[in-house]
Structure formats: C-alpha cells, structure tokens
Amino acid sequence: MGKTYQEVHSKTPFEPHVLLFPIPFQGPVNCFLKLAELLCVSGIHVTFLNNNHIHGPLLRHTQVLSRFSRYPNFRFETIPDGLEHENPVSGDRFQEVMDAIDVVTKPLFREMIVSGSLSRRSKRPVTVMIVDGVFSFAAEVGFETSTPVLSFETISPCCLWTSYFHLHNLIEVGHLPFKGNDLDEPIKIVVGTEHVLRKRDLAEFCRKKNLSDPEIQRTLKEAKTIPRTQGLILNTFEELDGLILSHMRKLCPNIYTIGPLHSLHEARLIPNKSPKTSFSNSIWKEDQTCLSWLDKFPSKTVVYVSIGSMATLTFDQMLEVWHGLVNSNKPFLWVRRPGSITCENNESIVPNELLEYSQKMGCIIDWAPQEDVLAHRAIGGFLTHSGWNSTLESIVQGIPMICRPFYVDQLVNSRFVGEVWKAGIDVKDTCDRLIIEKAVRDIMDVKRDVFTQTTNTWANLAKESISETGSSSISLSRLIDDIRVMTSTMK
Ligand code: UDX
Q: How much is the pTM?
C-alpha cells in the first residue's frame, strides 16, 4: 500500500476535515447535505462526495451550489457509478445501482482515499469519514487507512435494530426464510420489540425465499461493519426511540441521535423569513403552486398523499388509492412523481367520477415542497409510504399518518407508527379502496381527536429535542467535539 496523504504530511497539524459519502438516493442525500451544512457552520471542513447520477438532478433542481458557496470550508466531489444517465432511479432498480457502485465506485473510492488524491485536491487530509451505513466498502477503506469512520444510517433505528442487527439471529433461529403463509406470526427474539413485531413488519427483504439474495448478504455485512466504526449517527431523537436505543447501545456504544435532522437544520440555519425553497435538496422540481391551492381550504381538512422518492405503484394500485380517496369525500393533494406509476398509464380508462372529483377537490403534482406542505395548516392527514424522512417530517408537524409501506424500513416504520407511537394507521398488505377510504375517514374524522392528542405530544417532544438544551442538540455538539478530538489524535 502506498503512503497516504496523512503519512506524507504527518508534521502539519491537522484541521478537522470530514468526508461525507451518502448512498445516491433522495432521502439519504438530503440528510447528508443537512448534516454537511451543520458541520460547515461549526467551522469543520467538509468534502461531500456524490455519485454522478444523482449529482446532476440535484444541481438542476436546487440552489445547493449557491447555498454552499457561502462556506469556504465546503467542497463537492463527484464519483462515477457507471449509470449512463443523470436521472434519479426508482427503488425497483436499487440492486442495479448497488451493483454498479460495487463494480465502478468501490475501486475508485479506494484509490481516491488510499492514494491521497482526494486529500490533495482539497489541500488537507481527510481526518474523519462519515459514510452511509450501507457503504461497508467505504468503512473498510477507513479501517485500512486508519482514518476514523462514523456510520450514518438514514433509515429508521427501529428497522436497523429489528431487521439489520438481528438479521443473523432471525436466520439462526429459523424465522428466515419464512415458512408457511402466516405473516401474522409474532417475532419474539428482538429485545425491546417482543410485543410489537410480526413477520409482516420486518424489512421487506426478510420475505425473500433465498438467503443468498444480494440484499440479504449486503445487510448482513452492513450489520457487522457498523459496530466496528467509531460511532453511529442516527436521524431520531432519544424520546422517540428510547427503548430501542438503550439496547442498541450495547452493540454500538457511541450513538449520536441528531434528529429530527430537518428540524435541527432549520432551527440552526434557516433565518425566520428566508424562503425554504432556497434550502431545498430536491432532485425533482418542486411545484410551489400547491401551497396556494392549499390556502383555499380550512384547517386540517386536506389529505396529503406521497410515496416518496423511490416507491412505485402499478396503475391498478394507483386506481385503488384514487377510489379510496374520492370515496372518502376529502380534498387531497397527491404527489405523482414522474415514473412512479408503472404499467400502462392510460388516462382513458380512469373512471370519469375520479377525474371529475379530482378537478374539483384534488391537486395532483409531480413533486411537492413536502416540508412546507406538511407544515401547512390545511393538511389533516398524510397517506405515506412510511419512508423515514417522511415519517419524521409528519411527526414534527403532528400530522397523523395512513401508512402504506413498500420496502426497506417502511414496513417496520409503519408498524411503529401504528402500534408504538400511535400516530396513525398501518394498512400494509391490505391496501384496497375500502381500506383506504376507511383509514382516511378515521384519521380525518372518526378518530381524529385521539390521534391528534398523541401526534401533538410527539411533535412537542421533537421540538424539545432540538432546543438548545435538547437531546439532539447535545448529541450534535458531542459529534462536533468528537470529530475535533478524532482529528487531534490522528497520527
Ligand atoms: C428511501 C426509502 O424508501 C426509505 O424507506 C428510507 O427510510 C429512506 O430512503 P424515500 O422514498 O426517499 O426513502 O422516502 P423518505 O425517507 O420519506 O424521503 C423522501 C424525502 O423526499 C423527504 O425528505 C420528503 O420531504 C422529500 N419529498 C418527498 C419532497 O420534498 N417532495 C415530495 O413530493 C416527496
């Protein structure tokens, strides 16, 4: 192995310089950019390494370049990933992205760090790496070059705990691969969630028949690698995930809970009157007109519908959701991301009643300024795919959720929303028009008061956690202090 930049420049005192490296999807890139900005304002040098195919859309639809130009201590770097286009990719092509990263990005990344070329370009050595939990290969390069590594998991702690850290136990005791068809069978071996979890609530890859599936193998590796890093950064707050965190700390003693990250970021960085759009990290163009559309409606009367940045619906599934919404007789704002409806999208077979109702009472757009939408007084419920960012954004605003999860952590999140946090209704695996209609009526009318009481409690706890003396603020300060300490002890 050649000498690292650190070894060559070992006489110069190091300044903290963090390399941030997210997996190239909307949710994680969004979280990493928010963390990057929080580190920048604390005076830490940051290099943000983005995969090519997501960097293009990010620059096209946001003002990140001008926003970050105010920080002389921030740089973007990009790394090829072998994907020949510059468009965001849906979740059904997740494995394709991971394969391309494995073949193209992994060796380039190693070369970049081991040869010191990245440190040379930024004229200072990387002193700490904060890498996406799924990028085990990046953590390995940190171990190899004696660069301190912190894992940042942007998925939910409840999924990380139940379906990642316990995956090998689930296999060992014979829960996986699933035998028989009873998805309601309880899963009792995950400490802290004994009375909550059923087979159907585990991450979706647990339903795979073949244990040599690349997703299972990658997750097993991820679960082994994270505890070897010097710390684990999580987008949650102590009060929300207290039970799980206490157990997780036995495996990963150094956990930084810095969530809800979007709120912490907003509290520290977005001055009161500045437009939120200039802080957007959206990789699709946000349609701001939906906010004035919402202005027309009374408080808490509109249902917001979104399946996030990766999930897709077949045309028939979309029709079921549509019928359910229309039959519930509530106004709705529905994000239909380009490419999110698969199979024939033939408007001519959409029943007239749906089109007519939607013209009067609906607003259908490509992409929303979601944080602003959820903060709008007209929103009373969120029909969501239960992505972790969406879940936290809803919790912060005290909006009850109808959870229609698809994959990764979403199946676990929806169970926790329904059973643990009592912040909504989980309709996983049963999502036809009748179920949707009933869930909308329950959230918006029948059980509104019960849900509001609970969701307001969580919203208040979230706000406390990001206050100056709150748990997440303290955790962020500790993270920044630790980055300085790790830097100062580097040889
Ligand atoms: C992916 C996985 O699907 C999810 O399970 C995991 O928790 C994180 O990575 P994604 O589909 O991107 O998530 O969902 P989510 O985590 O909810 O993030 C979506 C982000 O896009 C949110 O921050 C949301 O505010 C934003 N968004 C979504 C918009 O800005 N506009 C929209 O119209 C929809």
A: 0.96
CATH of domain 289-464: 3.40.50.2000
Q: What is the pLDDT of residue 348?
A: 73
The ranges assigned to domains in the chain are 5-274+465-488, 289-464
SS3 readout for the chain? CCCCHHHHCCCCCCCCEEEEECCCCHHHHHHHHHHHHHHHHCCCEEEEEEEHHHHHHHHHHCCHHHHHHCCCCEEEEEECCCCCCCCCCCHHHHHHHHHHHHHHHHHHHHHHHHCCHHHHHCCCCCCEEEEECCCHHHHHHHHHCCCCEEEEECCCHHHHHHHHHCHHHHHHCCCCCCCCCCCCCECCCCCCCCCCCEHHHCCHHHHCCCCCCHHHHHHHHHHHHHHHCCEEEECCCHHHHHHHHHHHHHHCCCEEECCCHHHHHHHHHCCCCCCHHHHCCCCCCCCCHHHHHHHCCCCCCEEEEECCCCCCEEHHHHHHHHHHHHHHCCCEEEECCCCCEECCCCHHHCCHHHHHHHHHHEEEECCCCHHHHHHCCCEEEEEECCCHHHHHHHHHHCCCEEECCCCCCHHHHHHHHHHHCCCEEECCCCCCHHHHHHHHHHHHHHCHHHHHHHHHHHHHHHHHHHCCCCHHHHHHHHHHHHHHHHHHCCC
CATH code for the domain defined by 5-274+465-488? 3.40.50.2000
Per-residue pLDDT tens digits for 388-429: 999 999 999 999 999 999 999 999 999 999 999 999 999 999
- Which of 279, 389, 394, 412 has most ligand 1 atoms within 8 Å of CB, for mutation? 389
Instruction: Look at ligand 1, atom 5, and give the residue with the nearest C-alpha.
Output: 387
Confidence of residue 235 (pLDDT cuts 50, 70, 90): very high
Task: Give ligand 1 pocket residues (Cβ under 6 A).
Answer: 25-27, 30, 154-155, 282, 306, 308-311, 335, 367-368, 370-371, 387-390, 393, 408-410
